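Model: You mentioned two targets. I'll fold them one after the other.
Researcher: Yes, keep them separate.
Model: Target one:
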Amino acid sequence: MKNLFLLAIAVSLTSCAVIRPGEAGIKQRFGKFQNEVKTEGVFIFNPITSKVVKESIQTNNLEMNLNLPSKEGLSVDSEISILYHLDTEMVPQVLQSIGRDYRTIIASVFRSASADVCSQFFAKDMHSGKRADIEEAIRLKMDDNLNPKGIVIEAVLMKSIQLPPRLSTSIEQKLQAEQDAMRLVFILEQARLQAERKIIDATGERDAQLILAEGLTPEIIKIRSIEAFEKFSTSINSKLIITDGKTPFLIQGTEK
């Protein structure tokens, strides 16, 4: 009976918490976080003196909408995604020094880092191939600040960039002009190729005529005419041949 009583007291003084994959469990005893971090399994603790705090160590997404300054002093509306996760081994330090509301710290650091980086680029750069450079520069600046605190910045993604109306119109007109110029170059190139082809065809035809003309001597012409009239004469169809009297077939016979 005494053993059962002691067992009941022991059970009442112990409890457990299940730590699922993607979570980190940290025991908080008398308000102070312990250094032991459990990432999977069961955490045994005394509910009277301790509790277990669970925190995600998976990749999380923080979305923000704000105005980014540009080098020329314009304000660019943007939609940003910040991908981050907590360093597993440093979760106790994060909770102890920053608390569970560390997302506000990430947002504050981003505002500062993005202002420093974007002010070095023109507004049009945020809408061009330099966007990736801007994103990486912001990420590095944030990571330098937050990584020592246990927060790892994986990526900064500028999902949507809304340029000022006048600048947007100017860029569209420039792109349209570039496309028109490229189209004109293509048309001119096609016309040049067609002209070259016609010249080649004409040159080939001229050369063929010259070669043919050089081979058509009076004797050859006379022979070809005789052959033609011979073919006509062997045909069974009726025929009428009109000649001007100079046809080679009409050869004057030798006078007797």
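Model: Target two:
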Amino acid sequence: MKIYIFYNLKNEPHGGANQFLKALQYYFVQNKLAAQTIEEADIILFNSHHNIYEIIELKQKFPNKIFIHRIDGPVFLIRRKNKLLDKMIYQANQEIADATIFQSVWSMQENKRLGIPTKPFETIIYNAPDPDIFNSNDKREFSRQRKCRIIATSWADNFHKGFYTYLWLDKNLNFANNEFIFCGNSPLKFENIISIPPLKSTELANELKNSDIYITASENDPCSNALIEALHCGLPAIALNSGGHPEIVKKAGHIFNDNSQIPELIIDICNNYSSFQENIELPSMQETANLYINFMQNVFNEKKKSKIKINKFSIYKFALLHRLFKNIKLSR
């Protein structure tokens, strides 16, 4: 079984999907499962809405290959706009995908609530980072003899990625006892929070390992890669009660509903730091990749037993939707 990840992977700092799929691709290569070309692939893994028009063409050209859809979102809940984008994703899942991978229970439930059709093959697999980069090796030990170093990260500059909360913290956090680093693209200028631009993965991991607590206030984030990277680097986390955050953090930090709760939650983690750190419990990249492989192998085996039924009318119908929505800006 050979797998081709249909995604334009980038080496420079980029969003969570890119970072996860790059690590997954590396694992497939190391285990001789990665197809070098689409032609030699048995399975094509495609991601959410990215390159959706090319996926239509691939399905038409290779109707007997297995297409597995890694679902994001719902995008509308993240961006608060463009419901047509989710409709395109759901249509692609209906007409093109043989199987669906959701990133969290929350994401599966919300997508189903908004209308994604159920597929015969579905699963939930959480993300994981590159273990050679995002690990707790050489992490700075926590100490009460210095300021608590808090960090937040975001590739996207969407205000719903937590910036309303970070602005509140910039004005209300006790900076005599804490320092706050924001790494990424921010639509705001802070007075007390130190802002640094997006970093390469190795540099970001070092910044995380030199910090004590990770904070994320992103709204409706299905499975935050940034949060997962921080936890893998040994940081207890404080996360907004939204999206997949509670599923990821569990007992390795705190979930908050209101900004005013955060200062006390920081104090509690500082008072019980080792306990929270010991409760970090996440699947490794190897475990996550094997879940992908096992799921794909199961789909592959079942599809070999019964010939894949190609609904040519559905593909034609989706191609018409392609033309109808071609002016929708899908990449942001």
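Researcher: Noted. Anything on target two?
Model: Residues 3-128+284-324 form a domain with the Rossmann fold fold (CATH 3.40.50.2000).
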